[in-house]
Amino acid sequence: MKKYKDDLFAIVAGGSFLYFSTLDKEWALFWKITGFLLLIWGILTVCIHLKSGKKP
Questions:
Q1: Which of 14, 44, 47, 53 sits most deeply, having the most CB atoms within 10 A of its CB?
Q2: Cα–Cα distance between 11 and 13 in angstroms, integer?
Q3: What pLDDT, in 10s, does the model give residues 5-30?
Q4: Which domain holds residue 44?
């Protein structure tokens, strides 16, 4: 899992942004959009790296 740390960081950051959207009502839409984008990006890159079998 050490070689996928950047992708896992994106997943954790996306989840954190989604959580932060519940705390900040003025910027909630911004935090939700960026959170979902980071979450999807992280998941897709992990899947691509696992499917290709190459080191990222």
A1: 14
A2: 5
A3: 888 999 999 999 999 999 988 999 99
A4: 2-52
